[in-house]
Design a protein that fits this description.
The longest helix has 20 residues. α3 runs parallel beside α6, α5 packs across α6 and α10 crosses α11. Strands 6-7-8-3-9-10 form a 6-stranded mixed β-sheet, with helices on both faces. A 4-stranded antiparallel β-sheet has the order 2-1-4-5, covered by helices on one side. With 271 residues, it is of the alpha/beta class. 42% of the residues lie in helices and 22% in strands. β4 and β5 form a beta hairpin. The protein has 2 domains: 175 residues, Rossmann fold (3-Layer(aba) Sandwich); 75 residues, no CATH class. The chain binds adenosine-5'-triphosphate and magnesium ion.
Length: 271
């Protein structure tokens, strides 16, 4: 579904991505983890067209998409959410999700201008589909009010609903658990599994290690813009290079033991 090959991306002197390669098979749930600044979001930004990589290749469902605009990559089946929410705060909850449907709805500008029957039909379909996805993410409460009036955890759900309304093949989630309480995290874990059951491939950036360990079939670990480990949760958890990446080189034995426990149970502590 996704193939990333030798990706390069630099900001001034900082090499955010330094020859990053990894792949994700159709239907998989793969987590991308690594310390702060490892290049995780940069990798998602290159894959989704928000950054243009200075080198390397991105293939989505077998087609090269390297350097295409975000809208062109979205049209080929990719949807994403953002580390910092990017909802339209001044639009209603429902309209935020309806915005996701415009990728596939067939109305033209002229239809919209003239309010043709096709326009009205298509608007009705968009609304139905938006409600369907808001039901799917189990959004409670009013859908006609401004999205910015919702509690933070609910806004995160709306963002996922909007991404699903694009009918993606591949969904990128950038820290979906950030700022959620433990009940909301449990619901997120179930939601991710239900999304997979729809046949959608999922790539997840996440610092919450219990969530990562529970939902991932495979974990890709980045450090300094490169892949340092790739494997099943149990293999990654016991990989010395991973523990070292989270700690730095000079950790003593006690710190390494604590970090292993953190990666395996409650999550590495990211200040
Ligand atoms: N737009 C940008 N301009 C300048 N530097 C950037 C930009 N985006 C990323 N970087 C730098 O690239 C490196 C990788 O950042 P990135 O955001 O990809 O890390 P990350 O793994 O997502 O970290 P975090 O876990 O903190 O979200 C960092 O050194 C960061 O400061
Ligand atoms: Mg990030």
């Amino acid at each position: 579904m996704l193939e990333v090959l030798a990706l390069q991306m630099a900001f001034g002197g900082v090499r955010a991505l330094d020859g990053l390669s990894f792949s994700i098979g159709g239907g998989e749930i793969v987590s991308v983890i690594g310390p702060n600044g490892a290049g995780k979001t940069s990798a998602f930004n290159c894959v989704s067209g928000f950054y243009r990589p200075s080198g390397g290749t991105v293939r989505l469902a077998g087609q090269e998409v390297t350097g295409l605009r975000p809208s062109a990559i979205a049209a080929r089946g990719l949807a994403r959410t953002f580390q910092n929410l990017r909802l339209f705060g001044e639009l209603s909850v429902l309209d935020n999700v309806r915005a996701g449907t415009h990728l596939w709805s067939k109305q033209s500008f002229l239809d919209a201008l003239l309010h043709t029957p096709r326009y009205r039909r298509s608007e009705g379909e968009s609304t139905d589909e938006a409600h369907k996805w808001l039901d799917f993410v189990e959004l409670r409460g009013d859908r006609t009010g401004l999205v910015r009036h919702l509690p933070y955890g609910e806004q995160r759900r709306v963002e996922i609903a909007r991404a699903l309304a694009r009918r993606p093949k591949l969904l990128l989630l950038d820290e979906p658990a950030a700022g959620l309480n433990s009940g909301e995290k449990a619901e997120l874990r179930d939601l991710i599994r239900r999304i997979q059951q729809l046949g959608i491939t999922i790539a997840l950036i996440e610092h919450d290690m219990s969530l990562v360990m529970e939902v991932s079939e495979r974990i890709v670990v980045l450090n300094f813009g490169r892949k340092i480990a790739d494997g099943a949760p149990d293999d990654v958890r016991s990989n010395p290079a991973v523990v070292e990446a989270y700690l730095g080189r000079d950790a003593d034995d006690d710190e390494i033991r604590d970090a292993r426990a953190g990666i395996s149970e409650k999550g590495a502590d990211h200040a």
